[in-house]
Design a protein that fits this description.
about 5% helix; five-stranded mixed barrel; mainly beta; about 170 residues; OB fold (Dihydrolipoamide Acetyltransferase, E2P)
């Protein structure tokens, strides 16, 4: 069995480049930086940054172009693909890119509005917030206000059985 799967959580390195193919399909390219930290044998903290080229297609590309900006956190799921071409000097070139199959927007900056809760595209939960991307909890008053603890449904795990009607989603 073969598997070609990439999962990245990082920050966008520049504003997205949105284009269209001659057939009208949207394509967006972004750079994503990921950091790895570790402690070496001498006890010193080390950090290494990797830069990844990501290609998004269709509706996902449009959403990336609309909502992502330099510095935004993003989760990308996809596959590696290597392509080759001949440059204008006749040199053979190759590049390996992440072909995104799914994207989740990270938490918004505090000054960006939207309550600081991450968004999601491609299904699933937003990361970084611990809450579903679209919550069915109704808020009274300010739309950006976080729900109070008494508004959040609770499932008692001490019971022997979890009933479907107890699940809040």
């Amino acid at each position: 069995m073969d598997l070609n799967k990439v999962i990245l959580v990082g920050r966008v390195t520049a504003d997205p480049q949105v284009r269209s193919t001659p057939g009208g399909q949207s394509v967006t390219t972004i750079g994503v930086a990921t950091n790895r930290t570790w402690t070496d044998k001498a006890g010193q903290r080390q950090e290494q940054t990797e830069f990844h080229n990501v290609v998004l297609w269709g509706r996902t590309a449009e959403i990336a172009g609309q909502y992502l900006t330099k510095g935004a956190m993003v989760l990308i799921e996809g596959r590696l693909q290597t392509r080759s071409w001949t440059d204008k000097n006749g040199q053979q070139r190759k590049t390996t890119e992440v072909m995104a199959e799914r994207m989740q927007l990270g938490p918004r900056a505090a000054n960006a509005g939207g309550g600081g809760q991450g968004g999601s595209y491609g299904g699933g939960k937003s990361f970084g917030s611990g809450a579903p991307a679209s919550s069915s909890v109704s808020h009274s008053g300010d739309a950006d206000a976080a729900p109070s603890l008494d508004e959040i449904p609770v499932i008692n795990l001490e019971d022997d059985e979890i009933k479907p009607e107890d699940i809040p989603f």
